[in-house]
Amino acid sequence: MDFEPNEEQRAIALAVDNLLAQHAGPARAIELEREGSYDHALAAALTEAGFLGARLSEETGFLEAALVVEAVAKAGGVVSAAAESLVAPGVAGRSLEGPVAIARAGEDAPIRFGDHARTLLLDAGDEARVVILEPDWREPVRSNFMTPLGRIRVPEGAGESLGAGSGSRLRRWWRLALALDCLGALEAALDITVEYVKRRRQFGRAIGSFQAIQHRLAQCAVQVEATRWLCYEAAANGAPEEACAIAAAYATDTAHHVFRETHQLTGAMGYTREHDLHVFSMRLEALRVELGGTAAHRRAITRSRWAS
Amino acid sequence: MEFSWPEDDARFRQALRDFLDETLPDDWEEISRHGPGSDDQSSFSRTFCARLAERGWLTQSWPAAYGGADATPWRHAILSEEMWRCGEPRGSQYMNVNWIGPTIMKYGSEDQKREHLPRISGGDVLWCQGFSEPEAGSDLVSLRTLALRDGDDYVVNGSKIWTSYVNGAELCFLLVRTDPESKRHKGITVLLAPMDAPGVEVREVPAVVGERYFHELFFRDARIPASARLGPEGEGWSVVSYALAYERVGAMRYARAGLTLDALAAAAAERGRLDDPAVQEKLGAARAAVEASRLLSYRVIDLRARGSEPTADTNIARVAGTMCENAVSNLALELFGAEALEYGTFAESYFRLAMTAGVAVGTTEINLNLIASRSLDLPHE
After folding, report:
1. ipTM for this prediction
2. Is the bond into A26 cis (omega within 30 degrees of 0)?
3. Residue contact B265–A305, C-beta within 8 A
4. B302 and A2 in contact by Cβ < 8 A?
5. Which domain holds residue B184?
6. Where does residue B346 rank: exposed (0-12), middle (13-18), buried (19+ CB within 10 A)?
7. Does B243 fall in a domain?
8. Do B203 and B228 sit in the same domain of this protein?
9. What topology is assigned to A167-306 in CATH?
10. One digit per residue, pLDDT tens: chain A, 308 residues?
């Protein structure tokens, strides 16, 4: 047991933060959202540095890949880092050409990166399939949730099967991936709100000095910290089924809680496009309904731990 | 970062479980349902701790100089987990090992160390803690129990309340004010007070949380020898801060919650309710809360293992621990329904044990205050 990053992990975190400071951030996310674009420039920079795809997990480990995914999410990056650096190597054992989207077969709902994806990881029940997408299988979906969405319609039986039982492997890594996407956005949303209540003055004092506000943010901090360790442990241990379901259930429950609290405490300012909060808060709500949402993750915990 | 147990720690845990299987009596489950302050559990703790001491496990985390084995905080956490898991057969003696002993090591005189440490490490002495007062709960520094020096003694007047583990206790880790003019943190002193001193009276405060759970202590011109003072006069706040930093995650309460939850799932399965999606959701949510509590407690152990000063991580772990206990105990009542209303049943016993979680050892609100100031750096004003 050791909860401090080692030298290599610190070096990776520092390098990826430097790169993200140049190429990502909420302002960039807002600009891309206006254009309806994917951040190909950020993806290229991350790939060049070895931070996107299977290389990181192969050379160092899944925990290191998880740290990068978290950092990208915290910087508001519009790239499919979680799918490319965790799910693809975890399920297919290799890099897949990005952007990578993940979807459940038979559903017509919008999916993240659906209009930009080159590759689709498809949860087809017992098996997972890798589908190389044709451009006319995709269509954009207008959305306010600060993450590019699209619908993908693939012909029956398209793509390559990853074998019997690969479906549950996909769901494990998918759950961990979306928990880590939550984690980064949670940290950013909480940081933004803590800074806001320190500066915002009403009644002659910073509103962050009121206990009514302090307790709510402290409660958020407890849940964000717990999310962090649940994610790290699951990643370090190779994404065990129960741990991944727990990370997803806890992270998405926290996502919804933090969404409500941060918007309440930033008042009208938090709803505006000039304030950074919405980049992260809206994504939190998008993440919490993915793959059946918190309720489905909770049921998955129970099936994994106690079903005979 | 590394999230797995080294082999020797895993072996220790197994040895401990084997020992518990051999040592706990057949009716232990029954005994533990009355709560750690009950007559049965208190008296059992004396024989149990003595046997734990024989194995060298009771105070393994203490320095070798005081009869310990310099075991790592991780090793100590395993002990605490396994004890809480089965209902804390050490009774109140976990306090002795976790913080009373270490605080005496840090602040005690040589005589005090000789007098108290071997008895604690031998496992047959019971202590209680005299902190809260009728007018000093969360705001502990407003305590008023007065101890005035008279020759070789302190003469103590005042009262303490909500005192746990008084049943059979020989000694009290007592907070008093030695300077009647002093305010707040200043002028507080710690006395290692014998409970049989004349002028000390104990009264049970009957409560729904368990037998012999709360007590009031009355001090009426009670004479406590000055040699029982721990640390310098007026410096008691430093002493108690040191002690409390140890206490807040001393009890690995999620371990009990986790085992209880497994039993609840088994009971749900027996009743054919494990396929009910609503039950599955609640079990899953509670399981996530248990794991969150476990990892945040481990974070505190990790910091302690590095010799870090206490941080708000301790308060964070405590709040998550309360969330975990609430989730499991709510579910216990919901799953068992009206059956859980009968005293001493499985669900009722856990509900009763868990209901003090957000209040004991510092309320949730105090923990949130400390997280806000120490971790989020929010302004005071």
Report:
1. 0.97
2. no
3. yes
4. yes
5. 128-234
6. middle
7. no
8. yes
9. Butyryl-CoA Dehydrogenase, subunit A; domain 3 (1.20.140)
10. 999 999 999 999 999 999 999 999 999 999 999 999 999 999 999 999 999 999 999 999 999 999 999 999 999 999 999 999 999 999 999 999 999 999 999 999 999 999 999 999 999 999 999 999 999 999 999 999 999 999 999 998 899 999 999 999 999 999 999 999 999 999 999 999 999 999 999 999 999 999 999 999 999 999 999 999 999 999 999 999 999 999 999 999 999 999 999 999 999 999 999 999 999 999 999 999 999 999 999 999 999 999 86
